Amino acid sequence: MKKLFALTLAVMMMVLSFAGCGKKDNYISFDALYSKLTTEIDFSASNMQKQGEAALNNYYYIDPTTLENYAIYMSDYATGNADEIAMFQVKEEDQVAAVKALINDRITDLKVRYEDYKPEEMSKIDSAVIVDDGCYIFVVISPDNDKAKTIVNDAIAGKLEQ
């Protein structure tokens, strides 16, 4: 009976170790990705600023308990630019769709805000980069969204120095 219990416990621990999104082999450093994006793309006019949990709650409406990690950078409000970099790692892969829906709501909100306020920003918002891979979701609104998408995809492929 003790052997059966030990075997059952060992199997359960193995199963739990594979659950969720704790794969270390495809870890993506948010700091390295942000650095690469802001080095390769000129965000200087935006005066990008790292945001805290308030941005997560007030702009994305994402429950922080669903996230393993996140980083949000937004342009300084005074610049009037729509530039934004947001990176999320959800705890469970089945949460990706819900978080992406909230991200799409954020993009829709930006479109409504900017269409009359600063219409020249609309092309950036309309072509916003939203990429997910496993438990990671990346959002970039930048002066060069094509280049941003390439950089994000390189990070996912492990071609980014960390």
What do these coordinates show?
With 162 residues, the chain is α+β, with helices and mostly antiparallel strands. The protein has helices at 2-18, 30-40, 53-60, 96-117, 122-126, 145-156; strands at 49-51, 67-74, 84-90, 129-133, 136-141. Helix content is 46%, strand content 18%. A hairpin with a 2-residue loop joins strand 4 and strand 5. The chain is globular. The model is unreliable at 4-19 (pLDDT under 50).
Gross geometry: globular
Q: Which segments are poorly predicted (pLDDT under 50) over 5 or more consecutive residues?
A: 4-19
Q: Oligomeric form of this entry?
A: single chain
Structural class: alpha+beta
| Tally of separate helices | 6
Beta-strand proportion: 15-25%
Briefly, what is this?
The protein is an alpha+beta fold and 162 residues long. Helix content is 46%, strand content 18%.
Task: List its traits.
162 residues, alpha+beta, 5-stranded antiparallel sheet, globular
Write the layout of secondary structure elements.
Elements: H1 2-18, H2 30-40, E1 49-51, H3 53-60, E2 67-74, E3 84-90, H4 96-117, H5 122-126, E4 129-133, E5 136-141, H6 145-156
Antiparallel strand pairs: 1-2, 2-3, 3-5, 4-5
